[in-house]
Write a structure and sequence with these properties.
There is one protein chain. Helices cover 5% and strands 45% of the residues. The protein is built from 1 helix and 19 strands. Strands 1, 3, 5, 10, 11, 13, 14 and 15 form an 8-stranded mixed β-sheet that branches. Strands 2, 4, 6, 9 and 12 form a 5-stranded antiparallel β-sheet that branches. Strands 17-16-18-19 form a 4-stranded antiparallel β-sheet, with no helix packed on it.
């Protein structure tokens, strides 16, 4: 049984180097209406600091030992890098509560594509084949899986983008795999820091963000990104 599972997780790991146009069929994969995967909306400012995309998962009565997914971003998006000793590594981390005491590792792949930026994610455990938890050490439910730091460079286009996430598989210890039913996506907002023109008189502020994409209840001291009721975006210094 362990050999079967290792074959499956190696297939998951292969997602990092697979062609962007290739989607391998898996006969043991079935849609699971009880499996819910959600991703946080995120705002990135071109040339600004990194903001963190949060990925969450919950499943009624189910536990998993590995997972994979692919995110389809527009051009100009990249993974943030952080220092690890003398090296720079991808800014991605599993949720400490769900993976406490386990030996899972998460890896990112960024294969070349012409029309955007593809981010392939794989999380596996080849050491002990353990299920990751659905709660913390105190038994409190935890849904967050991981966070990944993202940045927008100077080539990123302004606007709101629907980012599709596909090839999602959550793999069980016995080698079976589930995918969530229905489309999974989130909104990526890239505001123009230069501001907006031709604001209508009845246009009002709708949402507030920090320069690194964190949503606010109200403007704070410093630079604020404001999304207006008509969908346009401006920068304000308070």
């Amino acid at each position: 049984m362990k050999k079967i599972f290792l074959s499956i997780v190696m297939a998951v790991s292969a997602i990092l180097g697979a062609s962007a146009q290739t989607t391998a069929a898996n006969p043991v994969t079935v849609e699971n209406p009880n499996l819910k995967v959600t991703l946080s909306d995120i705002t990135l400012v071109p040339g600004g600091d990194a903001a963190y995309l949060t990925v969450s998962e919950e499943c009624e009565g189910g536990t998993y030992a590995a997972f994979q997914m692919v995110m389809h971003f527009p051009k100009g998006i990249e993974v943030n890098k952080v220092k690890s000793g003398r090296k720079e590594v991808d800014d991605v981390a599993l949720n400490a509560a769900r993976f406490d005491g386990l030996t899972h590792s998460i890896s990112l792949g960024t294969p070349e594509v012409e029309d955007g930026f593809l981010l392939k994610v794989a999380c596996i455990d080849l050491t002990s084949n353990d299920n990751f938890y659905n709660d913390d050490a105190d038994g409190k439910k935890v849904t967050e899986l991981f966070k990944v730091g993202l940045k927008a460079n100077s080539t990123a286009a302004f606007g709101d983008f629907k980012v599709l996430v596909d090839q999602i598989k959550f793999i069980k210890k016995n080698s079976d795999a589930d995918i969530p039913s229905g489309e999974v996506s989130f909104t990526l907002s890239i505001p123009d820091p230069a501001g907006i023109e031709n604001v209508s008189l009845d246009n009002t502020p709708a949402e507030f963000y920090t320069i690194d994409g964190k949503k606010l209840q109200e403007p704070q001291k410093g630079i604020n990104i404001i999304r207006m009721s008509d969908g346009s975006v401006l920068k304000q210094v308070k």
